[in-house]
Design brief:
By secondary structure, the chain is of the alpha/beta class. It has a single domain, classed as 3-Layer(aba) Sandwich (Rossmann fold). The chain has nine helices and eleven strands. The chain has a seven-stranded mixed beta sheet with strand order 5-2-1-6-7-11-10, with helices on both faces. Strands 3-4 form a two-stranded antiparallel ribbon. A two-stranded parallel sheet has the order 8-9. Strand 8, helix 5 and strand 9 form a beta-alpha-beta unit. The chain is globular and about 50 Å long. The termini are far apart. The mean pLDDT is 96.
């Protein structure tokens, strides 16, 4: 590989920072990648944790991408309704080698039609919404690779997603080296990382929180696909 591949991570207002910045941190250590952030404009956006994030490029100034990474957030409806972003994604996709997402970033790609005909995954709390796109096969995996589409589950899955992406593009040895460098050997203190393993009272509370954030999204998809 003579020239580093351009890996662009889209960032936006109220995104979940770890969705995009966990891959940013890990992929920035790969010398074959030129990893950067970009946004709708070149102005700073604020993550849902209150941290201001400054993109390197706007949509107009973003260089051609080899790999697109779309993070998510608790409410991505604003991005899904952004005609400028949707148009840019559709125009960019044909010349981009890998179209990828983490968490609810899959819904943004789905809205642009970029997951039609592919298998994909999203955060477990938004699987129902992703299944409403009739041309997407939603599967229950931590990371899903279907040809040049790579999608990751919720938030922390961005780390597994990053290693999978490295392995797909550069081979398993490169991914092994990055995993070792990052000392990535998960040993969570609790087995509550999925609805199946979490205590029922915890699961019910988290589901209620998630459902409260999906009222407009549910209406949007119902109007689009169920009318």
């Amino acid at each position: 590989m003579n020239k580093p591949m351009n890996v662009g991570i889209y960032i936006f207002e109220d995104m979940t920072m770890l969705d995009g910045y966990a891959p940013l941190q890990m992929l920035s250590f790969v010398e074959q990648f030129n990893t950067f952030t970009f946004a709708n404009t070149e102005g700073a956006v604020q993550a849902d944790c209150g941290v201001p994030l400054t993109p390197k490029y706007g949509l107009e100034s973003c260089p051609p991408l080899d790999i697109l990474i779309m993070p998510g957030g608790g409410d991505v409806l604003t991005q899904m309704r952004d005609d400028k972003l949707m148009k840019w994604l559709r125009q960019t996709a044909p010349t981009t080698s890998y179209i990828t997402s983490v968490c609810t970033g899959a819904l943004i790609l789905a809205e642009a039609g970029l997951l039609d005909g592919y298998k994909a995954v999203t955060h477990w709390g938004w699987v129902e919404q992703l299944t409403q796109y009739p041309n997407i096969e939603v599967v229950d995996q931590r990371v899903v690779v279907d040809r040049n589409r790579i999608t990751g589950g919720g938030i922390t899955a961005g780390l597994d997603f990053s290693l999978t992406l490295i392995a797909e593009v550069l081979g398993a040895p490169a991914a092994h080296a990055i995993q070792l460098l990052f000392e990535y050997r998960p040993q969570p203190p609790f087995d509550s990382g999925s609805p199946q393993s979490a205590p029922s009272e915890v699961r019910d509370g988290v589901i209620a929180l998630i459902e409260s954030r999906k009222v407009e999204l549910r209406e949007h998809l119902a109007n689009k696909y169920l009318a």
